[in-house]
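Re-run with default settings, no changes from the original entry. Doing this only to confirm the output is reproducible before filing.
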Amino acid sequence: MNVTLKLFASLAEYLPSGAVKNAIEIEVRDDTTPNRLIERFRLPEREVHLVLLNGIFLDPAARDTPMRDSDVLAVWPPVAGG
């Protein structure tokens, strides 16, 4: 199945070549979860802060739910400002 991975801010450097506008469509196994995808791209755990699946926030306990074809996973690091 195919899913889209979007990585923002400092996490964008973990995207493979061929990514466009911080996103890439990739082929994954049917049992892929958000956590497995995060591990696959070796995103530092301390840098994975905000995780959205199809625009819906996933708390850490929900990140082991299998994804479906055409899902979009977006990940942001912690941000600060003021």
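The longest helix spans residues 34-40. Helices lie at 34-40.
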